[in-house]
Amino acid sequence: MSDTHLDLLKSVAPDDARAVLALGSRRALPSGTVLFELGAPADHLYVIDRGRVNLTLPMQVFGHDEDILVEERVSGQTLGWSALIPPHRFTLKATTQIDTEVFVFGRAALLDHFAARPAVGYAVLGNVSATVGQRLQVFQAMWLREMKRVLQFSRGAGEAK
Amino acid sequence: MIMLLMGLALAMFGLAVTAAAFGAATRNEAKPEVRVQPRVEAVPERFFADPHRAFHQQPNVPLEVLLLQIEQHVRLEQAAAESFIHLPTSEALNCRTESPLVH
Description:
heterodimer, A: about 160 residues, alpha+beta, Jelly Rolls, four-stranded antiparallel sheet, 8 strands, B: about 100 residues, mainly alpha
């Protein structure tokens, strides 16, 4: 496996990247496996080596809770960053969409490693920040698009009265 | 005399039948007032979905189909949002998608 395709290890020197990878373990997950549940304690960070993971939120549809796709994560991407950010609770549910392999990193092992090697910690947490920021920006834009439709709909409903 | 009375009676009867038939043909029947009740539908909580007409215009959409439509909508909206982040302009932010929930 090359570690250059992993978002988490961008701009990290190859030796340092290998040292970070050595902190994790590889886990094979069949399609449909729930990697973590909404609200569960977030003690592990995941990086997808191969496969695809659905991130969902429950939404009430016709009186039933249904898992609604919020985001898809693919090979090379990081998920479960709540492990590094208080209050360390998952805010989405993660389910493998196809057979998937992930690297699993314990929070304590990562933070100890970063404390001993601040430059690596700085680079890795910068990459995590990029992932968090990207989600924020995407959802800002999606929220605004939905707000626009709500206003259009409200105006249309008002004119129909 | 009897013949005259019979003829008169038949004529009166014929006149009555004709009048009744004419009245029936030209009567304006009072139609019962039709009250259109506004249709109240179960609408999901609004997050991604839906204030959109297309959603409401499809009666009895199976849940599985609806969930697939929502999934497709989210993917398209996410792609549109990512395009905006890549090149932030008002046009990119407000561009239309082919989402089945908004057409």
